[in-house]
Design goal:
alpha/beta; 13 helices; 2 domains; about 375 residues; globular; Rossmann fold
Length: about 375
């Protein structure tokens, strides 16, 4: 990077992170706050949103907040699905991305939020991001509620600095909990009211679901470290097709040429059907009508859980117990298949596993699929 580039970045940092926020604050401060406007910031991934979204409805219906207008800042990746599922209770959606750090979009978002003049902002994440903490700091809001959680997404120094930006920090302890249960714990403190939700739910009536009874294969993942090799998925599809006789639909992530690679490798055309370029709503509809989902540790697992569809999850044990597997009291139909050299008892709720996803044995995955498929067939033949 040249000296000129370094100077430009420093200039952008000062303008975006210091100067313009101060100007926006001065321009918006004279505007009166709206006492019953609440901003909730849920700006992490799609899976995180699905494990939280039902609590938006709980908060909206609570005695404390039932007369308030709800506004939501959501990650760009989740925005369309959030609007589709929860647009009935959210007055306005604002979109956010971690990539806003030194971009003008951050200033655009801050301007929109400041001029809406909220009375309360809630950042309900147990693992906060300092960039969101910074956003909260720069909002002229009377009540700023956050969670005194862990340091998975930021250093202890930044977390302690961010703690200072909130008027109220919720203490939920350090006992390891699945993310759904942790969210429940947090919203009960926010609302001062008991929540009786037992698991994530997407009502099938919200989608045009047709029960097709196929096995859905979702080979994509957010990072390469979570992707089971494509060749392993082909071998799995072949075993399922020849041994179980089940219909198979492969739903690759956007930009993944799963079907094209199959042609290149002379994979039989009738082995599976490819449903590519699906929107999140379409993916939900496809999974909702399935007999079983086979997926890595990614958003598809949480879609299936919310739609009560059994899952075989191929994972290496990252943050084990926080997102997968689900506790039986929340959702008891997720079977996690780990590498044979990995024992769940040695996995850490707050750490990443040193294992490799390619070490998950295809025979173990097929056995898990066979067991679930047998149970489904037994149910349908009774």
């Amino acid at each position: 990077m040249s000296f000129t580039d370094v100077l430009w970045l420093k200039f952008k940092f000062v303008i975006i992170r210091k100067v313009l926020p101060s100007i926006i604050y001065l321009l918006c401060s004279p505007l009166p706050r709206q006492k019953q406007r609440i901003l909730i910031i849920k700006a992490d991934g799609i899976g995180d949103y699905l494990l939280f979204r039902n609590f938006l409805h709980f908060l909206k219906g609570s005695q404390k907040y039932k007369h308030h207008q709800f506004y939501l800042t959501v990650n760009q990746s989740s925005a369309r699905l959030a609007k589709y599922l929860d647009g009935d209770i959210i007055s306005t959606f604002f979109t956010y991305s971690e990539g806003f750090f030194l971009k003008w979009e951050l200033i655009g978002l801050l301007w929109k939020l400041q001029r809406t003049r909220f009375d309360t902002v809630i950042y309900p994440n147990y693992s906060r991001s300092f960039q969101v903490d910074w956003l909260v700091r720069n909002l002229s809001v009377k009540n700023k509620i956050g969670v005194d959680g862990d340091c998975v997404n930021e250093t202890a120094v930044l977390k302690n600095e961010g703690n200072r930006y909130y008027s109220e920090l919720l203490d939920v302890g350090t006992l390891p909990l699945h993310e759904f249960e942790r969210n429940k714990q947090i919203v009960e403190l926010i609302a001062s009211e008991k929540c009786f939700l037992t698991g994530p739910i997407i009502a099938k009536s919200e989608l045009d679901i047709i029960d097709h009874g196929d096995i859905i294969i979702f080979p994509g993942a957010s990072t390469e470290e979570k992707k089971w090799p494509v060749s392993y998925f082909y071998a799995l599809c072949s075993r399922i097709y020849t041994t179980l006789g089940a219909g198979i639909v492969v739903a690759p992530g956007k930009g993944e040429a799963f079907g094209k690679t199959a042609v290149d490798l002379n994979i039989p055309a009738d082995l599976f059907r490819v449903a590519d370029n699906l929107s999140l709503e379409e993916l939900c509809t496809l999974i909702g009508g399935a007999a079983l989902l086979v997926s890595g540790d990614t958003v598809a697992v949480h879609i299936a859980a919310a739609l009560n569809v059994p899952v075989v999850c191929i994972c290496k044990g990252d943050l084990y117990g926080r997102f997968v597997p689900y506790p039986s009291g929340v959702f008891d139909k997720v079977c996690c298949v780990l590498p044979r050299n990995v024992s769940p008892q040695y996995l850490d709720y707050s750490s990443w596993s040193p294992a490799k996803i390619a070490d998950v044995d295809g025979e173990d995955v097929f056995d898990a699929v066979s067991n679930v498929w047998a149970q489904k067939k037994e149910k349908y033949t009774k």
